[in-house]
């Protein structure tokens, strides 16, 4: 039995795809699910944005925006691996939950549009992965279109993200003249627009195509050979150690839309991506294959339908195995209870889960018991996994109660929602005005809706726009430094924070006050 658990845990690969909107995350996810046989038709993942979702009873915001619990986690089997892909919602759905999801994965896949390079949201998500030091695999997408020079893209990744790159394969041309990829790892050429039977060409010892093939006559082939030679000689060597520490990213080229290079990517990814790793807790490191179920909650999704107030808490299993009905303890409160209502996330639908192991994600129905970051462990065990980090909010809004007679429910609602991790709360120094902080507008929309529906409190939100938040890294606070353009506030633990109007205001402030230490919790160390 113990051995079976070890094997099962080893087969798990739990990752998230990080990218900027439109880079091709949905398309790639769909192709991966197709290879895993988890879906039959392309369009299924996207389809959830409309068709299937319309019948669900989740609320308007969710319907409009297509946030679906079903696509939050997608699990499927591929060869001997059980793969969990965690969705990182972008567009208007970007929120702290997107960041927190990255706390629950063991590796990340970064998709870059070959015509655009590193974009804003990719950078933000990358920073969170970097904080955790998890392996990051890069897929440069849309090679079937004219994009930027591959060497230039690698340079940008190395410079902007401060990470070494190792191209696992190299494109031969691009756009209309995209012939395929030179696969350094599998030592073969994979041809684009070619049927499966003739897709691969083997290479000889010198790294050249063995057989007589027309591609050998093309200048793009010769150019690719030259570039690969350059990479062999002058590029970094592949290092699994560096990959595991998040210091080197293997780079793949391909085209998600045409499913080109995707399976090769998946096979190589599975070979190198780590299975679940030990996690730090207040009881020391806990091995994922150790007996005794434990896990932590990284996301709580409210059911926005007023008729169903229940929520779903997403739990990442970190050790042992989960069985439905098992008795567990919530360490924050010491409360013991049975986990009976749970759900697992399969690519095609939600279904009741009876059994899951380390690396898997389960959804637990929540009637207000859980908070983000909570640890649950089997039996009477009390352990607490490391606290989730603080994320730097970027959007701010003043919030007041519409009805001054309803202050009690207003305060109760805010405090509970803040504790739950829905939004961040700040207060001004003198007047103690409430300011909410978020990383995405969705968090404010959800907040307003839940205040009304769950706490019967109508709120007035007065947008302050985007600000740059920097925590004061010192005990001493000089309230005199507060101004309109560098507003001094307190976070919910009374730590002082400056909210700067823009980059210019931040620079001006640091130039004027070089001895005031400021800190961005998400800054790459
Ligand atoms: P996202 O989830 O990261 O936001 O991106 P998504 O997969 O939705 O892809 C964004 C657009 O890029 C889509 O086109 C998609 O078809 C296209 N795309 C994705 N991968 C490739 C690729 O390898 N090559 C090319 N040429 N295009 C790609 P769209 O027109 O915006 O949407 P749709 O109408 O096709 O759904």
UniProtKB/TrEMBL annotation:
Q: Name one Pfam family in it.
A: EF-G_D2
Q: Where in the cell is it found?
A: Cytoplasm
Q: What does this protein do?
A: Increases the formation of ribosomal termination complexes and stimulates activities of RF-1 and RF-2. It binds guanine nucleotides and has strong preference for UGA stop codons. It may interact directly with the ribosome. The stimulation of RF-1 and RF-2 is significantly reduced by GTP and GDP, but not by GMP.
Q: What superkingdom heads the lineage?
A: Bacteria
Q: Where is the Tr-type G domain?
A: 10-277
Protein family (similarity comment): Belongs to the TRAFAC class translation factor GTPase superfamily. Classic translation factor GTPase family. PrfC subfamily.
Write out the residues that bind GTP.
19-26, 87-91, 141-144
Which keywords fit this entry according to its UniProt record? Cytoplasm, GTP-binding, Nucleotide-binding, Protein biosynthesis
HAMAP family according to UniProt: Rel_fac_3
Its recorded name reads Peptide chain release factor 3
């Amino acid at each position: 039995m113990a051995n079976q658990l070890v094997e099962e845990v080893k087969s798990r690969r739990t990752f998230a795809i990080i990218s900027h909107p439109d880079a091709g995350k949905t398309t790639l996810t769909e192709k991966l699910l197709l290879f895993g046989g988890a879906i039959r038709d392309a369009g299924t993942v996207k389809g959830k944005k409309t068709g299937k979702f319309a019948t669900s009873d989740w609320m308007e915001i969710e319907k409009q925006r297509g946030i679906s619990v079903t696509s939050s986690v997608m699990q499927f089997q591929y060869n001997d691996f059980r793969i969990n892909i965690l969705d990182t919602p972008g567009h208007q759905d970007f929120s702290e939950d997107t960041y927190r999801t990255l706390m629950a994965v063991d590796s990340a896949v970064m998709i870059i549009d070959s015509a655009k390079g590193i974009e804003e949201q990719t950078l933000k998500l990358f920073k969170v992965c970097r904080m955790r030091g998890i392996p990051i695999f890069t897929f440069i997408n849309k090679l079937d279109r004219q994009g930027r020079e591959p060497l230039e893209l690698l340079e940008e990744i190395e410079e902007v993200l401060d990470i070494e790159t190792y191209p696992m394969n190299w494109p031969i041309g691009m756009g209309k003249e995209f012939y395929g990829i030179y696969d350094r790892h599998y030592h073969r050429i994979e041809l684009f627009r070619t049927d499966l039977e003739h897709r691969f060409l083997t290479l000889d010892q010198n790294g050249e195509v063995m057989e007589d093939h027309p591609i050998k006559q093309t200048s793009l082939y010769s150019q690719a050979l030259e570039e690969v030679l350059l990479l062999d000689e002058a590029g970094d060597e592949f290092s699994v150690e560096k990959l595991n520490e998040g210091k080197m990213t293997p780079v793949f080229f391909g085209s998600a839309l045409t499913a080109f290079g995707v399976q090769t990517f998946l096979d190589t990814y599975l070979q190198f991506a780590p299975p679940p790793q030990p996690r730090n807790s207040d009881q020391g490191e806990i091995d994922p294959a150790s007996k005794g179920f434990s896990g932590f909650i990284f996301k709580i999704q409210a059911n926005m339908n007023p008729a169903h107030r229940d929520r779903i808490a997403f739990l990442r299993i970190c050790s042992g195995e989960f069985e439905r009905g098992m008795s567990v303890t919530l360490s924050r409160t010491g409360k013991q209870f049975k986990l009976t209502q749970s759900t697992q996330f399969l690519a095609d639908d939600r279904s009741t889960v009876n059994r899951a192991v380390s690396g898997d994600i389960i959804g637990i129905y929540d009637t207000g018991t859980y908070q983000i970051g909570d640890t649950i462990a089997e039996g009477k065990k009390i352990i607490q996994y490391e606290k989730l980090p603080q994320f730097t909010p970027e959007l701010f809004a003043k919030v007041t109660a519409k009805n001054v007679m309803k202050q009690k429910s207003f305060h109760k609602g805010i405090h509970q929602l803040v504790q739950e991790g829905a939004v961040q709360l700040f207060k001004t120094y003198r007047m103690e005005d409430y300011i909410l902080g978020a990383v995405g507008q969705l968090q404010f929309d959800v907040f307003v809706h839940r205040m009304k529906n769950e706490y019967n409190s109508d709120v007035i939100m007065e947008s302050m726009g985007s600000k740059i938040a920097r925590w004061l890294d010192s005990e001493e606070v000089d309230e005199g430094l507060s101004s309109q353009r560098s507003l001094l506030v307190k976070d919910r633990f009374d730590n002082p924070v400056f909210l700067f109007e823009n980059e210019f205001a931040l620079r001006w402030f640091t130039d004027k006050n070089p001895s005031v230490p400021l800190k961005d919790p998400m800054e790459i160390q």
